[in-house]
From TrEMBL:
The chain crosses the membrane at residues 12-31, 37-59, 71-98, 104-129, 141-165, 171-189, 210-228, 240-265, 277-295, 301-324, 336-359, 365-385. The keyword Transcription regulation does not apply. Keywords: Membrane, Transmembrane, Transmembrane helix. Coiled coil: none annotated. InterPro entries: MFS, MFS_dom, MFS_trans_sf. Residues 1-389 form the Major facilitator superfamily (MFS) profile domain. It holds the Pfam family MFS_1. It comes from Microbulbifer spongiae. This is MFS transporter.
Length: 399
């Protein structure tokens, strides 16, 4: 049975995932009611993402020194204040009290504050969850966190739906309620014992080439997801002939289905595995298989099967390399902070490259995705053989 404190941490992660997706879902609403242009909204989202990427390692390292709970409380409190300011500004614009030019700088400041503070959430939750659980269950714990994030991303649009039916800007309330709920969950968590945050007293059991290869896979994996998310809408229009409204609706449905699929794989399969290297290898294999299926069946309904296999690959892969990289008696906050930076950078690169390549080669929409997955396969070989293979076999008994 899952530790009640781990359930709270999973709830915090799920709320963060839901908050991120809800903001993206509400972009058309913000454009219509607040008068912000798409370029302005894109700049605000990019600004927040940049701050997330910069601050993640700093928060993680700080949590190693002062503890997970105070750092997580500080991050959530700062994120909540920033979201309150962001929503207040948008409502003021909708009521005609502020014009876009006057409000943009204040909106940008709110996104900077949000990004700098929300960056504490994932590294602290991952390091804290690993410290709370047993070392041999690290893969199960990390897959549970990934599943919680996927569940939040899948349920986010559903949470906003009742408020969307009511109309107006009521869905924006979720941007405040979700971090508030996460803050309350954190308050109820116990303060970690002093030995739960330990100094880096041992060398990493993986050799440097394996560590670099695993970090490269983390970057390429999120870049692959970013490319696929960016390409969904345009491909549904150009390849499947859907209208703009139909493509947007189908994209939202596919993203929700993908998030729920990832959640089910991680809860039903990954958490039952004992060896993180098995999850890692299943992830690489499924990722390559899904990408090949997508590329060969694009234009038909069978491409949905390739998408689900691709999602299953990510669901196996992420907790697999997270568990392989994390080691006993290691500064977990620093590690997961670096992974947060790598993941955010990967998504950013994926969105940028995906859009640019599609504009250059619309007849080959998955060219960038195929290249990313090929590089993942090469990095996996580096991580597994020849020296890495022995190390990964040995680490089976460490988890």
């Amino acid at each position: 049975m899952l530790n009640p404190h781990l359930r709270r941490i999973n709830g915090i992660v799920a709320s963060q995932g839901a908050s991120q997706v809800i903001l993206i879902t509400l972009i058309p609403l913000i454009i219509e009611h607040c008068g912000l242009g798409l370029a302005s909204i894109g700049a605000l989202v990019a600004l927040g993402t940049l701050c997330l990427m910069i601050a993640g390692p700093l928060w993680g390292a700080l949590s190693d020194r002062v503890g997970r709970k105070p750092v997580l409380l500080a991050g959530l409190a700062g994120a909540l204040i920033a979201q309150c300011l962001f929503v207040a500004l948008l409502v003021s614009m909708a009521l005609g009290f502020l014009e876009e030019r006057a409000a943009f700088l204040a909106l940008a400041a709110s996104r900077i504050v949000y990004g700098l503070n929300a960056a504490a959430i994932y590294p602290c939750c991952q390091a804290w969850a690993v410290a709370l659980g047993e070392q041999q269950k690290r893969l199960s714990i990390l897959s549970g966190l990934s599943a919680a994030a996927n569940l939040g991303r899948g349920l986010g649009p559903l949470l906003a739906l009742p408020a969307l039916i009511v109309g107006g800007l009521w869905p924006l309330a979720w941007l405040i309620l979700l971090p508030l709920g996460a803050l309350l969950l954190t308050v109820g968590l116990p303060k970690p014992e002093p030995d739960m945050v330990q100094p880096d007293t041992v060398q990493h059991s993986l050799p440097p080439p394996c560590v670099l290869a695993l970090f490269a896979i983390a970057l390429l994996g999120t870049a692959s997801v970013g490319q696929l998310q960016m390409l969904m809408g345009p491909a549904l229009q150009d390849v499947y002939g859907l209208s703009a409204l139909g493509a947007s609706s189908t994209t939202a449905l596919l993203l929700a289905v993908a998030a729920i699929c990832g959640f089910l794989v991680q809860v039903g399969l990954v958490r039952r595995l004992k060896a993180p290297q098995l999850s890692f290898m299943l992830g690489v294999t499924s990722l390559c298989t899904g990408t090949l299926l997508l590329s060969t069946t694009l234009g038909s309904i069978l491409a949905a099967i390739g998408l689900l296999v691709f999602v299953a690959g990510i669901a196996f892969l992420v907790p697999g390399y997270n568990a392989l990289l994390s080691q006993p008696r290691q500064r977990g906050g620093r590690l997961f902070g670096l992974l947060s930076l790598v993941h955010t950078a990967g998504y950013t690169i994926g969105f940028s490259i995906g859009g640019w390549l599609y504009a250059q080669q619309p007849q080959q929409p998955l060219m960038g995705l195929l290249a990313s997955v090929c590089l993942i396969a090469i990095c996996a070989v580096i991580a597994l053989v020849p020296k890495g293979k022995k190390v990964l076999k040995r680490t089976q008994y460490d988890y």
